[in-house]
Automatic annotation (TrEMBL):
GO process terms (BP): isopentenyl diphosphate biosynthetic process, mevalonate pathway
Residue positions binding ATP: P87, V88, G89, S90, G91, L92, G93, S94, S95, A96, A97
Family affiliation: Belongs to the GHMP kinase family. Mevalonate kinase subfamily.
Locations listed in the record: Cytoplasm
Pfam families attached to this UniProt entry: GHMP_kinases_C, GHMP_kinases_N
HAMAP family reported in the protein's UniProt record: Mevalonate_kinase (MF_00217)
Gene Ontology molecular function: any one: ATP binding
Alphabetical list of InterPro entries matching this protein: GHMP_kinase_C_dom (IPR013750), GHMP_kinase_C_sf (IPR036554), GHMP_kinase_N_dom (IPR006204), GHMP_knse_ATP-bd_CS (IPR006203), Mev_gal_kin (IPR006205), Mevalonate_kinase_arc (IPR022937), Ribosomal_Su5_D2-typ_SF (IPR020568), Ribsml_uS5_D2-typ_fold_subgr (IPR014721)
Major site of localization recorded for this protein: cytoplasm
Protein name in UniProt: Mevalonate kinase
NCBIfam families attached to this UniProt entry: mevalon_kin, PRK03926.1
One GO cellular component term noted in the UniProt record for this chain: cytosol
Functional description taken from the UniProt entry: Catalyzes the phosphorylation of (R)-mevalonate (MVA) to (R)-mevalonate 5-phosphate (MVAP). Functions in the mevalonate (MVA) pathway leading to isopentenyl diphosphate (IPP), a key precursor for the biosynthesis of isoprenoid compounds such as archaeal membrane lipids.
């Protein structure tokens, strides 16, 4: 049995706009998905979602990874077991983490010798196939770890303050939210185009602020980014309520992370205010995860 793991992520800036080629800044976080693989006669995929064979309804990402390996190896059967700390369909990159950890686990089992860049590329192809339109952000960050600016693939300084996540526990499908933004953009290109460019500008302006650890200014930009995410229709009442609760209780800034429409928001906060921010989000009805940035990307855990 070989076990590999990959981290989840939060966006400091730029989700959705990054699908249109705008820059984004994304940060790997210390909650992980673990995938164990071993030889078997047929394909079995087991997770909290159920136990299946190749099945594009229940396990689309993992099924697509297996099909991809069948193109480059003589893979017939394999047993795949997924255990994840990352809530599914929540904006924390569960799809990227399960995809990348599965690729690394199969690469290790089958001895295909993929480099990290190959793993990230294959992961992106899988996300594009399943999600429709997908940026390289989640799969790249979760492969490499750390804080990364996309599309430059430039590593920024690790975030050195508290990260508090508030989960609405409202399931949201990234594929659907990305399609909704595309529809809005088709209806009102003159209005939505500039909003997407402004979201991209957050990363351009924010890059130096992240590297100089000016989290007061990073937080202000995150708040502006949140307003623009609301403008493109990916907010919801719960996400707004949690972001205001965080900001009113000591956070530098707070916004949706990932696709939105439900899922999670993220606040950055001084470490001494993390408990206050967490309590405020919980009082507003959120499920809280306190975490940290991590520079540990995909890795083998045991064999
Ligand atoms: N632990 C897991 N086990 C199996 N499949 C998973 C797991 N986590 C995520 N997935 C897959 O990823 C999908 C959610 O991806 P997506 O809509 O992009 O949301 P997220 O924001 O969490 O990445 C799930 O429907 C499932 O297909
Ligand atoms: C909305 C988007 O920018 C991020 C989606 O992240 P998540 O799947 O919600 O964790 C889509 C993408 O970049 O592919
Ligand atoms: Mg996803």
């Amino acid at each position: 049995m070989i076990t590999c793991s990959a981290p989840g992520k939060v966006y400091l800036f730029g989700e959705h706009a990054v699908v249109y080629g705008e820059p984004a800044v994304c940060c790997a976080v210390d909650i992980r998905t673990r995938v164990s693989v071993g030889p078997a006669d047929s394909v079995t995929i087991s997770s909290s979602l159920g136990t299946t064979g190749i099945d594009f309804e229940t396990h689309p990402y993992v099924s697509a990874v297996v099909e991809r390996f069948r193109e480059i190896t003589s893979l017939e059967g394999v047993s795949i077991r997924i255990v994840s700390e990352i809530p599914v369909g929540s904006g924390l990159g569960s799809s990227a983490a399960v995809t990348i950890a599965t690729i690394k686990a199969l690469d290790t089992l089958l001895g295909t010798g993929l480099e990290l860049d190959d793993i990230a590329r294959m992961g992106h192809e899988v996300e594009q196939r399943i999600q429709g339109a997908a940026s390289q952000t989640d799969t790249y960050v979760c492969t490499m770890g750390g804080v990364v600016m996309i599309p430059q693939r430039k590593g920024l300084d690790l975030i050195d303050c508290g990260l508090v996540i508030g989960n609405t526990n409202i399931f949201s499908s990234t594929k659907e939210l990305v399609a909704n933004v595309a529809e809005l953009n088709e209806s009102f290109p003159e209005v939505i185009g500039p909003v997407l460019s402004s979201i991209g500008m957050m990363s351009t302006v924010g890059e130096d602020l992240v590297n100089s650890k000016d989290y007061v200014s990073v937080g202000k930009l995150m708040n502006i980014n949140q307003g623009l995410l609301d403008a493109i229709g990916v907010g919801c009442a719960e996400l707004s309520s949690f972001t205001y609760a965080a900001r009113n209780n000591g956070a530098y800034g707070a916004k949706i992370t990932g696709a939105g429409g439900g899922g999670c928001m993220v606040a950055i906060a001084p470490r001494e205010r993390v408990d206050d921010v967490a309590a405020a989000i919980a009082a507003a009805g959120g499920e809280v995860v306190v975490t940290e940035a991590t520079d540990i990307g995909v890795r083998e855990e045991s064999r």
